[in-house]
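Hi, here's the filled form for the chain we discussed.

Project: internal
Contact: R.S.
Residues: 309
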Amino acid sequence: AREEIGQPSSRVCIAHFDTGYDPNHITKPQFLRTDLQRNFEDGSPNDATDRSDGAFNNLGHGAGTLGILAGAVVDGSPLGGAAFLDVIPIRVANSVVLFQNSSIAKAFDYVHSLSKNANTRVHVITMSMGGLASQAWADAVNALYELGVFIVTAAGNNFGNFPTRNIVYPARFKRVIAACGVMADGRPYADLPIKIMAGNYGPESKMPTAMAAYTPNTPWPRMGCNQLVDRDGRGTSAATPQIAAAAALWIQKFKSQWEGYSQGWMRVEAVRKALADSANLASSALSERLGRGIIRAKAALSQNPAREA
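And the returned structure, exactly as it came back:
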């Protein structure tokens, strides 16, 4: 899919919400918009590099998801699905488990402000973290949906379905695509033995706005080891940027038609329809855990934008 798009001159832009990025890693995206970077956690507000600390920190998590999303050339080929598109790094947390939500709300509002300007427009948001529901998140998601920004966030993870196997927020909102997991053999990344991390799914009412991508054992740039890409990426965190990259590639291919919709929300729904209609769902029974199915980025590019009706 990436090769079909090539290296466009007018690039789609993805906002990457996470713990930050590693400025020295070989996989740092080629088109990382550091001029627009923001930090809504501790530290300088204009520095999104990862300096996560504290008892429950996930230092390097952002470097890992950013590599899957848009990682640069490694061993002769690009790592990330959207390697030739723009990415804005936005640091929103020290941990993937969100105990407070003000940083996320501020990040959503920042993207909303950027998207009102044609020169800084954001087309896709990817966020590999989640937590409890927030009215501020709901308001921000609604505003971005009306503006036409496609949002995909992680469904969440559990051990033995504890503390919950239900999809967390903001992925739980129906105006957000929840990224669930599927394993290499096609089985859902769910309901695994208690000592093995598994992905969340459900309730049933949410699954029509959920999709799946591959995990675990995905490429994972190791922060602090500038040349190293491990193969131990796991969780719905690793699935989320795959879906975001596929969405961005589809928008890039059909950019003029996509921008031509008369209402912003139609742009979101057009992307959803293209991804869902091309997804792989071997049986209807799997929809309980995989939603609309497994993302197929190249197949999605054969889906023309839906008519407004």
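Let me know if anything looks off before we file it.
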